[in-house]
Amino acid sequence: MKLSSIFSINLAALMAAGLISLSSCSDNKKDYWNLGPDEPENPDSPTAQIKPRYIWVDAAANFPDFANSIENITRDLTLAKDAGFTDIVVDVRPTTGDILFKSSHCDQVKSLNAWVDGTRKAIHRTATWDYLQAFIDEGHKLGLRIHAGFNTMVGGHSTGGDNAPAGILFRDSSKKEWANYRYNGGKPANVMDLGDLEKFFNPGNPEVVDYICSLLKDLAAYDIDGIVLDRGRYNDLYSDFSPLSRQQYEAYINAKVQKWPQDIFPEGTTNTTLGKGYTNYTKTWLEFRAKTIYEFMEKCQSAVKSVKPDLTFGVYVGGWYNSYYNTGVNWASKKYDPYGKQSWASERYKNYGYAELMDHILIGAYANPKSVYGTNEWTMQGFCSQAKSKIGSACPLVVGGPDVDWRWTGSSAEYTRDEILDAIKNSVSACINACDGYFLFDMIHLKMDPEKWNAVSEGNNAYVTDWNNKYGDKE
Protein backbone atom coordinates (compact mmCIF):
# COMPACT_ATOMS: atom_id res chain seq x y z
CA MET A 1 0.00 0.00 0.00
CA LYS A 2 1.26 3.47 -0.82
CA LEU A 3 2.12 5.71 2.13
CA SER A 4 -0.26 8.38 0.90
CA SER A 5 -3.20 6.04 1.35
CA ILE A 6 -2.07 4.88 4.79
CA PHE A 7 -2.27 8.30 6.36
CA SER A 8 -5.94 9.07 5.72
CA ILE A 9 -7.84 10.48 8.69
CA ASN A 10 -11.19 12.04 9.34
CA LEU A 11 -9.98 15.64 9.45
CA ALA A 12 -13.43 17.11 9.12
CA ALA A 13 -14.57 15.49 12.34
CA LEU A 14 -11.46 16.72 14.12
CA MET A 15 -11.94 20.28 12.91
CA ALA A 16 -15.56 20.21 14.00
CA ALA A 17 -14.45 19.03 17.44
CA GLY A 18 -12.18 22.04 17.83
CA LEU A 19 -8.99 20.06 18.41
CA ILE A 20 -6.42 22.82 18.41
CA SER A 21 -2.99 22.55 19.91
CA LEU A 22 -1.39 24.37 22.81
CA SER A 23 0.86 27.28 22.04
CA SER A 24 4.63 26.95 22.23
CA CYS A 25 6.28 26.60 25.61
CA SER A 26 6.36 29.69 27.81
CA ASP A 27 9.71 31.00 28.93
CA ASN A 28 8.44 30.57 32.46
CA LYS A 29 8.40 26.84 33.18
CA LYS A 30 6.21 27.21 36.24
CA ASP A 31 3.54 28.97 34.22
CA TYR A 32 3.78 26.36 31.49
CA TRP A 33 3.46 23.31 33.72
CA ASN A 34 0.87 24.79 36.09
CA LEU A 35 -1.82 22.64 34.54
CA GLY A 36 -4.15 22.19 37.46
CA PRO A 37 -6.62 19.36 38.05
CA ASP A 38 -9.46 18.30 35.78
CA GLU A 39 -12.02 19.71 38.18
CA PRO A 40 -10.52 22.82 39.79
CA GLU A 41 -12.30 24.55 42.65
CA ASN A 42 -12.49 27.62 40.42
CA PRO A 43 -12.94 26.58 36.76
CA ASP A 44 -12.21 30.16 35.64
CA SER A 45 -8.80 30.12 37.30
CA PRO A 46 -5.83 30.37 34.89
CA THR A 47 -4.45 27.22 36.51
CA ALA A 48 -7.32 25.21 35.02
CA GLN A 49 -5.42 24.29 31.87
CA ILE A 50 -6.20 21.45 29.52
CA LYS A 51 -3.84 18.51 29.81
CA PRO A 52 -1.13 17.72 27.24
CA ARG A 53 -1.11 14.68 24.96
CA TYR A 54 2.31 13.26 24.04
CA ILE A 55 3.28 10.95 21.17
CA TRP A 56 6.68 9.26 20.88
CA VAL A 57 8.57 9.05 17.57
CA ASP A 58 11.05 6.17 17.62
CA ALA A 59 14.11 6.86 15.47
CA ALA A 60 14.69 3.47 13.87
CA ALA A 61 11.04 2.54 13.24
CA ASN A 62 10.30 5.87 11.55
CA PHE A 63 13.66 6.23 9.79
CA PRO A 64 12.39 5.10 6.36
CA ASP A 65 10.08 8.13 6.34
CA PHE A 66 12.16 10.73 8.15
CA ALA A 67 15.85 10.09 7.49
CA ASN A 68 15.94 12.08 4.27
CA SER A 69 12.61 13.90 4.00
CA ILE A 70 11.54 17.06 5.79
CA GLU A 71 8.31 16.85 3.81
CA ASN A 72 7.47 13.55 5.49
CA ILE A 73 8.25 15.02 8.90
CA THR A 74 5.86 17.89 8.22
CA ARG A 75 3.20 15.49 6.95
CA ASP A 76 3.26 13.27 10.02
CA LEU A 77 3.55 16.07 12.56
CA THR A 78 0.46 17.54 10.93
CA LEU A 79 -1.30 14.21 11.36
CA ALA A 80 -0.28 14.16 15.02
CA LYS A 81 -1.61 17.66 15.61
CA ASP A 82 -4.85 16.93 13.78
CA ALA A 83 -5.25 13.80 15.91
CA GLY A 84 -5.18 15.94 19.06
CA PHE A 85 -1.58 15.56 20.21
CA THR A 86 0.15 18.61 21.69
CA ASP A 87 3.64 17.27 22.43
CA ILE A 88 6.09 15.31 20.28
CA VAL A 89 8.98 13.27 21.71
CA VAL A 90 11.44 12.71 18.88
CA ASP A 91 14.06 10.04 19.53
CA VAL A 92 17.48 11.52 18.72
CA ARG A 93 19.73 8.86 20.25
CA PRO A 94 18.61 5.42 19.06
CA THR A 95 19.87 1.99 20.10
CA THR A 96 23.31 2.33 18.49
CA GLY A 97 24.08 5.18 20.89
CA ASP A 98 24.96 7.52 18.02
CA ILE A 99 23.01 10.74 17.62
CA LEU A 100 20.65 12.73 15.42
CA PHE A 101 21.65 16.17 16.67
CA LYS A 102 24.85 18.19 16.55
CA SER A 103 27.60 17.41 19.03
CA SER A 104 31.36 17.12 18.85
CA HIS A 105 31.27 14.28 21.37
CA CYS A 106 29.59 11.58 19.29
CA ASP A 107 29.17 10.41 15.70
CA GLN A 108 26.03 11.08 13.71
CA VAL A 109 23.70 8.21 12.82
CA LYS A 110 24.42 7.13 9.25
CA SER A 111 22.03 4.19 9.02
CA LEU A 112 19.49 2.30 11.10
CA ASN A 113 17.71 -1.00 10.67
CA ALA A 114 13.96 -0.81 10.15
CA TRP A 115 11.12 -3.05 9.02
CA VAL A 116 10.16 -2.27 5.43
CA ASP A 117 7.53 -4.36 3.63
CA GLY A 118 7.95 -7.16 6.14
CA THR A 119 11.75 -7.38 5.96
CA ARG A 120 14.53 -5.88 8.04
CA LYS A 121 16.73 -3.56 6.03
CA ALA A 122 19.25 -0.80 6.55
CA ILE A 123 18.00 2.74 5.98
CA HIS A 124 20.84 5.12 5.11
CA ARG A 125 20.81 8.80 5.92
CA THR A 126 22.27 10.83 3.06
CA ALA A 127 20.67 14.17 3.96
CA THR A 128 22.90 16.83 5.50
CA TRP A 129 20.24 18.91 7.24
CA ASP A 130 19.92 18.73 11.03
CA TYR A 131 17.42 15.98 11.93
CA LEU A 132 16.38 17.39 15.30
CA GLN A 133 16.24 20.96 14.03
CA ALA A 134 13.84 19.88 11.28
CA PHE A 135 11.41 18.53 13.89
CA ILE A 136 11.76 21.72 15.92
CA ASP A 137 11.16 23.99 12.95
CA GLU A 138 8.24 22.03 11.51
CA GLY A 139 6.69 21.25 14.88
CA HIS A 140 6.81 24.81 16.15
CA LYS A 141 5.21 26.06 12.92
CA LEU A 142 2.28 23.79 13.80
CA GLY A 143 2.12 24.95 17.42
CA LEU A 144 3.44 21.63 18.75
CA ARG A 145 5.93 21.31 21.58
CA ILE A 146 9.02 19.30 20.64
CA HIS A 147 10.90 17.21 23.21
CA ALA A 148 14.10 15.31 22.51
CA GLY A 149 13.99 11.61 23.46
CA PHE A 150 17.42 10.37 24.57
CA ASN A 151 18.27 6.64 24.74
CA THR A 152 20.58 7.04 27.69
CA MET A 153 22.62 3.99 28.67
CA VAL A 154 23.22 2.39 25.27
CA GLY A 155 26.77 2.67 23.98
CA GLY A 156 26.61 0.43 20.95
CA HIS A 157 24.78 -2.23 18.99
CA SER A 158 26.23 -5.38 17.48
CA THR A 159 24.11 -5.07 14.35
CA GLY A 160 23.85 -1.43 13.40
CA GLY A 161 22.17 -0.09 10.30
CA ASP A 162 24.32 -2.21 7.99
CA ASN A 163 24.26 -5.28 10.24
CA ALA A 164 27.70 -4.22 11.43
CA PRO A 165 28.68 -3.03 14.91
CA ALA A 166 27.93 0.63 15.61
CA GLY A 167 28.43 2.97 18.54
CA ILE A 168 31.25 4.39 20.60
CA LEU A 169 31.94 1.13 22.46
CA PHE A 170 32.80 -0.50 19.13
CA ARG A 171 34.65 2.46 17.65
CA ASP A 172 36.89 3.12 20.63
CA SER A 173 38.40 0.11 22.35
CA SER A 174 39.77 2.34 25.11
CA LYS A 175 36.16 2.77 26.31
CA LYS A 176 35.65 -0.94 27.00
CA GLU A 177 35.50 -0.41 30.76
CA TRP A 178 32.58 1.95 30.24
CA ALA A 179 30.54 -1.12 29.34
CA ASN A 180 28.31 -3.03 31.70
CA TYR A 181 29.53 -6.24 33.35
CA ARG A 182 26.78 -8.82 33.36
CA TYR A 183 26.43 -11.85 35.61
CA ASN A 184 24.22 -14.86 34.98
CA GLY A 185 26.27 -17.59 36.57
CA GLY A 186 29.99 -18.09 36.56
CA LYS A 187 32.14 -14.98 36.53
CA PRO A 188 30.83 -11.51 35.63
CA ALA A 189 31.83 -10.56 32.09
CA ASN A 190 32.08 -7.34 30.14
CA VAL A 191 29.21 -7.23 27.62
CA MET A 192 31.72 -6.42 24.88
CA ASP A 193 32.85 -10.03 25.31
CA LEU A 194 29.31 -11.41 25.30
CA GLY A 195 26.62 -11.88 22.68
CA ASP A 196 24.33 -9.08 23.85
CA LEU A 197 23.16 -7.11 20.82
CA GLU A 198 22.79 -3.85 22.73
CA LYS A 199 25.82 -2.81 24.73
CA PHE A 200 24.81 -0.94 27.87
CA PHE A 201 27.07 1.38 29.83
CA ASN A 202 27.76 1.08 33.54
CA PRO A 203 25.85 4.07 35.01
CA GLY A 204 28.19 4.16 37.98
CA ASN A 205 31.28 4.86 35.88
CA PRO A 206 32.19 8.58 36.31
CA GLU A 207 33.54 8.74 32.75
CA VAL A 208 30.21 7.49 31.41
CA VAL A 209 28.38 10.12 33.46
CA ASP A 210 30.62 12.88 32.11
CA TYR A 211 30.13 11.65 28.54
CA ILE A 212 26.34 11.54 28.81
CA CYS A 213 26.27 14.97 30.43
CA SER A 214 28.38 16.43 27.62
CA LEU A 215 25.83 15.15 25.08
CA LEU A 216 22.93 16.51 27.12
CA LYS A 217 24.52 19.94 27.28
CA ASP A 218 24.76 20.03 23.50
CA LEU A 219 21.18 18.81 23.24
CA ALA A 220 19.95 21.48 25.66
CA ALA A 221 21.41 24.19 23.42
CA TYR A 222 18.68 23.52 20.86
CA ASP A 223 15.39 25.43 20.89
CA ILE A 224 13.57 22.38 22.22
CA ASP A 225 10.75 22.40 24.74
CA GLY A 226 12.05 19.51 26.80
CA ILE A 227 14.31 16.49 27.18
CA VAL A 228 13.11 12.97 28.04
CA LEU A 229 15.69 10.40 29.11
CA ASP A 230 14.77 6.86 28.07
CA ARG A 231 16.49 3.83 29.59
CA GLY A 232 18.41 5.87 32.14
CA ARG A 233 18.92 2.69 34.11
CA TYR A 234 20.72 -0.63 34.46
CA ASN A 235 19.97 -3.14 31.74
CA ASP A 236 18.53 -5.72 34.12
CA LEU A 237 19.00 -7.40 37.48
CA TYR A 238 22.24 -9.04 36.29
CA SER A 239 23.91 -5.64 35.85
CA ASP A 240 26.39 -4.12 36.79
CA PHE A 241 28.94 -6.41 38.42
CA SER A 242 32.13 -4.74 37.23
CA PRO A 243 35.20 -4.42 39.48
CA LEU A 244 34.32 -0.72 39.77
CA SER A 245 30.79 -1.46 40.99
CA ARG A 246 32.16 -3.93 43.50
CA GLN A 247 34.55 -1.31 44.82
CA GLN A 248 31.79 1.29 45.06
CA TYR A 249 29.33 -1.08 46.73
CA GLU A 250 31.81 -2.32 49.30
CA ALA A 251 32.65 1.30 50.15
CA TYR A 252 28.93 2.01 50.51
CA ILE A 253 28.35 -0.81 53.00
CA ASN A 254 31.84 -0.55 54.51
CA ALA A 255 32.37 -4.29 54.19
CA LYS A 256 33.85 -6.86 51.82
CA VAL A 257 31.70 -9.26 49.82
CA GLN A 258 33.41 -12.63 49.96
CA LYS A 259 31.71 -14.27 46.98
CA TRP A 260 31.14 -11.72 44.24
CA PRO A 261 28.41 -11.57 43.13
CA GLN A 262 26.96 -14.88 44.31
CA ASP A 263 26.46 -13.49 47.82
CA ILE A 264 24.20 -10.77 46.44
CA PHE A 265 21.54 -12.95 44.88
CA PRO A 266 19.07 -15.21 46.65
CA GLU A 267 18.45 -18.62 45.15
CA GLY A 268 16.14 -18.57 42.15
CA THR A 269 17.03 -15.07 40.94
CA THR A 270 16.61 -14.40 37.22
CA ASN A 271 17.65 -11.42 35.13
CA THR A 272 14.30 -9.75 35.91
CA THR A 273 13.12 -11.08 39.28
CA LEU A 274 14.68 -11.79 42.65
CA GLY A 275 14.40 -15.23 44.16
CA LYS A 276 13.35 -15.99 47.74
CA GLY A 277 15.16 -15.85 51.07
CA TYR A 278 17.20 -12.71 50.50
CA THR A 279 20.88 -12.69 51.46
CA ASN A 280 22.49 -10.24 53.86
CA TYR A 281 23.40 -8.06 50.88
CA THR A 282 20.35 -8.19 48.63
CA LYS A 283 18.47 -5.16 49.88
CA THR A 284 21.52 -2.95 50.34
CA TRP A 285 22.59 -3.88 46.79
CA LEU A 286 19.23 -2.75 45.39
CA GLU A 287 19.48 0.37 47.52
CA PHE A 288 23.01 1.05 46.21
CA ARG A 289 21.84 0.70 42.60
CA ALA A 290 18.96 3.13 43.21
CA LYS A 291 21.45 5.54 44.78
CA THR A 292 23.70 5.23 41.72
CA ILE A 293 20.85 6.04 39.34
CA TYR A 294 19.65 8.89 41.56
CA GLU A 295 23.09 10.47 41.52
CA PHE A 296 23.33 9.95 37.77
CA MET A 297 19.99 11.71 37.22
CA GLU A 298 21.05 14.50 39.56
CA LYS A 299 24.13 15.15 37.42
CA CYS A 300 22.12 14.97 34.18
CA GLN A 301 19.58 17.46 35.48
CA SER A 302 22.36 19.79 36.58
CA ALA A 303 24.03 19.55 33.16
CA VAL A 304 20.80 20.42 31.34
CA LYS A 305 19.88 23.26 33.69
CA SER A 306 23.39 24.71 33.44
CA VAL A 307 22.64 25.42 29.78
CA LYS A 308 18.96 26.38 30.11
CA PRO A 309 17.60 26.61 33.66
CA ASP A 310 13.98 26.61 32.46
CA LEU A 311 14.29 23.73 29.99
CA THR A 312 11.91 20.93 30.90
CA PHE A 313 13.84 17.84 32.02
CA GLY A 314 12.39 14.40 32.64
CA VAL A 315 12.31 10.68 31.99
CA TYR A 316 10.31 7.86 30.51
CA VAL A 317 9.86 4.89 32.87
CA GLY A 318 7.75 1.76 32.92
CA GLY A 319 4.74 2.02 35.20
CA TRP A 320 5.37 -1.34 36.88
CA TYR A 321 6.97 0.13 40.02
CA ASN A 322 6.53 -3.06 42.04
CA SER A 323 9.10 -4.83 39.85
CA TYR A 324 11.04 -1.84 38.49
CA TYR A 325 13.69 -2.34 41.17
CA ASN A 326 15.30 -4.77 38.71
CA THR A 327 16.55 -1.79 36.68
CA GLY A 328 17.93 0.12 39.66
CA VAL A 329 15.35 2.89 39.32
CA ASN A 330 13.20 4.43 42.02
CA TRP A 331 11.07 6.92 40.08
CA ALA A 332 8.79 7.74 43.01
CA SER A 333 8.96 10.75 45.31
CA LYS A 334 11.21 10.58 48.36
CA LYS A 335 7.99 10.92 50.32
CA TYR A 336 6.81 7.52 49.09
CA ASP A 337 8.25 4.73 51.21
CA PRO A 338 8.02 1.18 49.80
CA TYR A 339 9.60 -0.28 52.95
CA GLY A 340 7.09 -2.64 54.53
CA LYS A 341 5.05 -2.68 51.31
CA GLN A 342 7.61 -4.40 49.06
CA SER A 343 9.72 -7.32 50.27
CA TRP A 344 12.75 -6.07 48.34
CA ALA A 345 12.76 -2.53 49.77
CA SER A 346 15.15 -1.41 52.49
CA GLU A 347 14.48 1.38 54.97
CA ARG A 348 16.73 3.72 52.97
CA TYR A 349 15.43 2.86 49.50
CA LYS A 350 13.03 5.81 49.61
CA ASN A 351 15.96 8.22 49.94
CA TYR A 352 16.76 7.64 46.28
CA GLY A 353 13.40 8.40 44.75
CA TYR A 354 14.19 10.84 41.98
CA ALA A 355 10.79 12.34 41.11
CA GLU A 356 11.80 15.63 42.76
CA LEU A 357 14.49 16.05 40.11
CA MET A 358 12.01 15.90 37.23
CA ASP A 359 9.80 18.43 35.45
CA HIS A 360 7.85 15.70 33.67
CA ILE A 361 7.72 11.91 33.91
CA LEU A 362 6.27 9.76 31.13
CA ILE A 363 4.75 6.54 32.43
CA GLY A 364 4.53 3.49 30.19
CA ALA A 365 1.06 2.17 30.98
CA TYR A 366 1.63 -0.88 28.82
CA ALA A 367 -1.35 -3.09 29.56
CA ASN A 368 -3.22 -5.19 27.01
CA PRO A 369 -6.41 -4.09 25.22
CA LYS A 370 -8.62 -5.92 27.72
CA SER A 371 -7.05 -4.07 30.66
CA VAL A 372 -7.80 -0.42 30.03
CA TYR A 373 -9.64 0.44 33.25
CA GLY A 374 -8.72 -0.64 36.76
CA THR A 375 -6.91 0.35 39.91
CA ASN A 376 -3.95 -2.03 39.89
CA GLU A 377 -0.72 -2.31 37.95
CA TRP A 378 -1.13 -3.95 34.54
CA THR A 379 -4.16 -1.86 33.76
CA MET A 380 -3.64 1.39 31.86
CA GLN A 381 -5.65 3.41 34.32
CA GLY A 382 -4.08 1.67 37.31
CA PHE A 383 -0.54 2.27 36.08
CA CYS A 384 -1.30 5.99 35.81
CA SER A 385 -3.19 6.40 39.09
CA GLN A 386 -0.60 4.44 41.05
CA ALA A 387 2.25 6.41 39.49
CA LYS A 388 0.51 9.66 40.39
CA SER A 389 0.02 8.50 43.97
CA LYS A 390 3.70 7.51 44.33
CA ILE A 391 4.98 10.73 42.78
CA GLY A 392 2.43 13.15 44.20
CA SER A 393 3.42 16.79 43.79
CA ALA A 394 7.14 16.00 43.56
CA CYS A 395 7.02 16.24 39.76
CA PRO A 396 4.70 18.83 38.16
CA LEU A 397 3.61 16.59 35.29
CA VAL A 398 3.00 12.83 35.31
CA VAL A 399 1.86 11.63 31.88
CA GLY A 400 0.88 8.04 31.09
CA GLY A 401 -0.41 5.86 28.29
CA PRO A 402 -0.12 2.69 26.22
CA ASP A 403 2.08 1.06 23.63
CA VAL A 404 -0.54 0.45 20.93
CA ASP A 405 1.30 -2.42 19.28
CA TRP A 406 0.08 -5.49 21.14
CA ARG A 407 1.98 -8.15 19.21
CA TRP A 408 4.48 -8.34 22.09
CA THR A 409 1.81 -9.70 24.44
CA GLY A 410 2.27 -13.18 23.00
CA SER A 411 0.52 -15.59 20.69
CA SER A 412 -1.94 -16.60 23.39
CA ALA A 413 -3.28 -13.05 23.60
CA GLU A 414 -5.89 -12.68 20.91
CA TYR A 415 -7.85 -9.47 20.52
CA THR A 416 -10.56 -8.61 18.07
CA ARG A 417 -10.23 -5.59 15.84
CA ASP A 418 -12.95 -3.79 17.78
CA GLU A 419 -11.25 -4.55 21.10
CA ILE A 420 -7.99 -3.02 19.86
CA LEU A 421 -9.57 0.14 18.47
CA ASP A 422 -11.84 0.61 21.49
CA ALA A 423 -8.84 0.14 23.80
CA ILE A 424 -6.91 2.90 22.00
CA LYS A 425 -9.86 5.29 22.12
CA ASN A 426 -10.65 4.54 25.76
CA SER A 427 -6.99 4.69 26.81
CA VAL A 428 -7.13 8.47 26.55
CA SER A 429 -9.82 8.92 29.19
CA ALA A 430 -8.45 6.08 31.34
CA CYS A 431 -4.98 7.61 31.49
CA ILE A 432 -5.47 11.36 31.19
CA ASN A 433 -8.01 11.48 34.00
CA ALA A 434 -5.80 9.38 36.28
CA CYS A 435 -2.74 11.63 35.95
CA ASP A 436 -1.67 14.90 34.33
CA GLY A 437 -1.73 14.00 30.64
CA TYR A 438 -1.69 11.30 27.99
CA PHE A 439 1.19 9.48 26.32
CA LEU A 440 1.18 7.12 23.34
CA PHE A 441 3.95 4.90 22.00
CA ASP A 442 4.65 4.96 19.09
CA MET A 443 3.80 7.01 16.01
CA ILE A 444 4.88 4.13 13.76
CA HIS A 445 2.02 1.94 15.05
CA LEU A 446 -0.49 4.58 13.97
CA LYS A 447 1.17 5.10 10.61
CA MET A 448 1.04 1.37 9.92
CA ASP A 449 -2.66 1.28 10.73
CA PRO A 450 -4.77 4.35 9.86
CA GLU A 451 -7.74 3.11 11.90
CA LYS A 452 -5.57 3.54 15.00
CA TRP A 453 -5.10 7.21 14.08
CA ASN A 454 -8.88 7.56 14.03
CA ALA A 455 -9.27 5.71 17.32
CA VAL A 456 -6.85 7.91 19.25
CA SER A 457 -8.34 10.98 17.56
CA GLU A 458 -11.75 9.99 18.89
CA GLY A 459 -10.29 9.60 22.36
CA ASN A 460 -8.51 12.95 22.29
CA ASN A 461 -11.58 14.58 20.77
CA ALA A 462 -13.83 13.22 23.52
CA TYR A 463 -11.46 14.47 26.22
CA VAL A 464 -11.13 17.97 24.71
CA THR A 465 -14.87 18.27 24.09
CA ASP A 466 -15.70 17.17 27.63
CA TRP A 467 -13.15 19.54 29.10
CA ASN A 468 -14.41 22.48 27.06
CA ASN A 469 -17.99 21.71 28.03
CA LYS A 470 -16.98 21.83 31.70
CA TYR A 471 -14.50 24.67 31.79
CA GLY A 472 -14.76 26.62 28.54
CA ASP A 473 -12.30 26.75 25.68
CA LYS A 474 -9.01 27.69 27.32
CA GLU A 475 -6.79 25.77 24.90
What does this structure look like?
The protein is α/β, with parallel strands linked by helices. The protein contains 14 helices and 14 strands. The strands form four sheets. It has an eight-stranded parallel β-sheet. The protein has a two-stranded antiparallel sheet with strand order 3-4. Strands 6-9 form a two-stranded antiparallel sheet. Residues 1-47 have low confidence and may be disordered.
Task: Assess the beta-strand content as a share of residues.
Answer: 5-15%
Largest sheet: 8 strands, parallel
Rg over CA atoms, rounded to whole Å, is 22 Å
Instruction: Give the integer mean of the pLDDT values.
Output: 90
Number of helical stretches of at least 4 residues? 14
Cα-to-Cα separation, first versus last residue: 36 Å
In helices, the fraction of residues equals: 25-40%
Major sheet: arrangement of strands = 13-12-11-10-5-2-1-14
The coarse silhouette is: globular
- Taking pLDDT < 50 over at least 5 consecutive residues as the criterion, the unreliable ranges are 1-47
Order of helices and strands: HHHEHHEEEHEEHEEEHEHHEEHEHEHH
Which structural class best describes the helix and strand composition? alpha/beta
Total DSSP E strands? 14
